[in-house]
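User: Hey, quick favor. My workstation is busy. Could you predict this chain's structure for me?
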Amino acid sequence: EVQLVESGGGLVQPGGSLRLSCVASGFTFSNAAMTWARQAPGEGIEWVSDINSGGTSTSYADSVKGRFTISRDNAKNTVYLQMDSLKPEDTAVYYCANGAYRNSWTKYDYWGQGTQVTVSS
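Assistant: No problem, here it is.
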């Protein structure tokens, strides 16, 4: 059974921080690149960040570069997204997926259920 379970979302004020986690099971996590994406209501899915299998290479969307940091702990089958200096426009449901295909959504095999992040005063 393949599972990706996101957690760590919540309500935060502008300028605040959150750390999201995605725990994977049912596949060889240590061999898999991983992706974070997000979706606001009425909007399409937006690629946010990805990381290679060894955690040595990372990429970020321009909208989050310098504020978000992706990392992973292969011993824990977990990928993280540290979000700092949050803005209201970061409000969305955040998802993790296996692979690193930017916005080629049909290439991803598995998605988590998502975790809600709301940035508001």
